[in-house]
Specification:
Elements: E1 5-14, E2 17-27, E3 31-35, H1 42-50, E4 57-62, E5 65-66, E6 76-79, H2 91-101, H3 107-115, H4 131-143, E7 149-153, H5 161-176, E8 180-185, E9 196-201, E10 204-209, H6 211-218, H7 223-234, H8 238-242
Parallel strand pairs: 3-8, 3-9, 6-7, 7-8
Antiparallel strand pairs: 1-2, 1-4, 4-5, 9-10
Length: 248
Amino acid sequence: MNNSVELRDLVVVRGPREVLHGLDLDIDGGVTGLLGPSGCGKTTLMRCLVGVQRIRSGTVRVFGQPGGAPSLRSRIGYHTQAASVYDDLSVAENLRFFARVRGLDKRAVGRVVEAVGLGGHESQVVDRLSGGERSRVSLAVALLGEPGLLVLDEPTVGLDPVLRQELWTIFHQLADAGTAVLVSSHVMDEADRCDRLLLMRDGVIIADGTPAEIRERTGSGDIESAFLALVSSAGDSPGDAAGKGDAR
């Protein structure tokens, strides 16, 4: 059985800067957290998985197929940092539009509305929703078609703790149902919500394991302290040598 994601020697260059430095990575099942400071390459990595990022060298395979293959469009859900819905349309209108684009019937809309807890809000215009509700609408769009891989780029940024908890509950419910979930964040206190944790800095993965394993490895009481300990022990990373800049 193929892993959901297989990266081999992945190199990405944006402008004058090498952003990803020969990554090797497999992802399959559960909720995998991709944590690191802003600008470390998390978004670039996620864009590679969904096939919207040009790569310099290496390979990206998702469900055994090359990343970006047309056959993967119905198998990957992608939640971008920016809102992916139309403010002047209602929740239901947004979902019906994106369902038509993907060739899905109306039943798909009802399923994702319930999955993200937006029942009763279908007729509300998105511009009048709270920040948390807007995030749920974007998540619902990503869930159309029951994707096997869900790629979520900082979906909880700017939300209050209650809403963040509710979204993480949804992520785990999806994972329990068989979806491989990859969630990025720069908020270290979200680390313990993940089944597996990838710590990223300057375009390289500096730690890979469960939150407990990473804390034990570094002798740290929390993931932020573990991250700082790993950075200190590693010294300059390949990203430092490649030059400073905006890696996203």
